[in-house]
Structures are given as structure tokens and as C-alpha cells.
Amino acid sequence: MMKNKFGKRISIEQVEEGNSLMPKFDDNGLIPVITVESGTELILMHGYMNEESLDLSIDTNLAHYWSRSRKKIWKKGETSGQFQHIKEILIDDDQDCLIIKVELDGLGASCHVGYKSCFYRKVDKDLSLEFIEKEKVFDPEEVYEGEENPTIL
Amino acid sequence: MMKNKFGKRISIEQVEEGNSLMPKFDDNGLIPVITVESGTELILMHGYMNEESLDLSIDTNLAHYWSRSRKKIWKKGETSGQFQHIKEILIDDDQDCLIIKVELDGLGASCHVGYKSCFYRKVDKDLSLEFIEKEKVFDPEEVYEGEENPTIL
């Protein structure tokens, strides 16, 4: 049961210059979300929400995503204990992307591979990847024991 | 003609723990891109690249996107003069999202509505939007005179 009602997108002016939340969900019913650590402003991850997970996120202040690999609502931290407490939500000009600024529970990490941020590698000129995080914060095999890896090839 | 060859995604281990760029393009041939201002770390916009625009971006160090509304390669700044010079590219764990860190030409703005960042509004508890950028950097009607608004309802 949805607690929040999102506005209907009627005009470009309302969407871009208005004061009402009118999020656009794509053909799969999803909106991309950039998750940032509140305070450090570090980009932690890029995920997706459907209408229900956005509603839950706003209602509980805990980040809920839509897991595209598991095809279900994904309350971040449910397995790892690393919940994300939402401090602020931003939306972009055409309201088809969100930023959530969060505080992290537990070890203060967010990436299922064990790093703090999912963006732990940079692309060099020769297309090789360089690790900018040198050490994992946690051991994913311990934290996610028995769970399937969400990465899709 | 593509200058860069991206790696083939063979195993999860190579994708997550490896040193080779193996970007995943979605069913529409696109990868999401978070654009950040180098130095300030401000998130400016969220866009998409196809294989060709990623190739061009890496080759020229100028941000090229795929415009979903115009359905063509979009060299950012071509109309406005506000080119984005790429200083760094990061990729996430499963290699299906990029961050590009850029320096901005011109007025130092990035949003087609006239603000510096596309994320100029925050979502309040009652779902109303509050403007966190108080003034536009430029007048879009002047800069984009005669161009169609890219926002899709």
C-alpha cells in the first residue's frame, strides 16, 4: 500500500520549474538513483528504484532499491547490516533521476564486492583499470555467505 | 569507426576484480553516466552513453552522450559552448555505470534549464521540491534559442 502519491507529469514547465515531485519511471518502471555518502559526498553506488521502493524509502528514511537481478524490492543492508539512512533526496531537471545522501551503518561500506564505494576503479588511457581503493572494507564471502552474486554478465 | 575496443564480459571475477574495461550496455545499448565537476565533486548531471559516444569520449577527452530524446550522439557543449573536458573516468563493480569527472567551459554550468547542476531541487518530507540553487547561471531561451526542449514527459 503506497503511502506517498507522486504528481502527474503534465507540462515540461511543471516538471522542470515546479515545486512538486513528479518522478518519471522508465519503460521498466524504474528510476535511476545515485547514492552519495552524506558529509564526504563520495558516490557510493548507482541503483534503481521502482515506485514502491521510492515510496518505502521516503516513508522509512531507509534506502530501498529494486534489484534487477533478484527482481524484488531490496532493502539495502538486510543481509549485510549496512543500512543506508537517508538524510536528503535531490531530483534532477526532468525528474528522471534521484540522488540520495545517506549515512551508512555497520562497517561504513556499500559495495557487495567489499569496497566502500562501488566505484573503486578508474579507467586509464589504455583502457586498463586501476584500483583507487586499495583494500576491501569487508570480506564479501563472509558477509554474503550463500547468497548469489547480483552481477549480471 | 571505433578507436577503442572494449573487453568481452566473460566471468564475474574478471568484471569485478579485473583490470580490463568491460562495460555493460543495456538492452538499448546504453550505459548510465554520472557527471561530476572535477575539484568541487558536485554532481552535475546523469546521462547515457552508447558504445560510440563512450569511444569518442575516451578518444577526445570531451564528453559525448547519447541523447535519448534526439536519438543521436550528443557532444555536450555543441550548442551552449559549455563543453565538458574529461579529467577522470571511474567505473563501478559490475561495470554497468560510469562516473566522469569534468572541467566545464564557458559559464561553468551544465543544466539545460540554466542551473549549474541538473540537481537544483531537493525533495522535502511533504514531497514538495525546494530550490537549492537560487539563481540560474544562464538564460536557456537565449543559449538554446530555437532548439527543442529535451525533456520527455
Description of the structure:
- The structure is a homodimer of 153-residue chains.
- Chain A is of the alpha+beta class.
- The first copy, chain A, has a domain at 12-113: Roll (Ubiquitin-like (UB roll)).
- In chain A, 13% of the residues lie in helices and 28% in strands.
- Chain A is built from 3 helices and 8 strands; from the N terminus they run αββαββββββα.
- Chain A has helices at 12-17, 51-60, 140-143; strands at residues 31-37, 43-49, 64-67, 72-75, 84-91, 98-104, 121-123, 129-131.
- The longest helix of chain A has 10 residues, at 51-60.
- The mean pLDDT of chain A is 94.
- At the A-B interface, α1, β1, β2, β5 and β7 of A face α1, β1, β2, β5 and β7 of B.
- β5 of chain A pairs antiparallel with β7 of chain B.
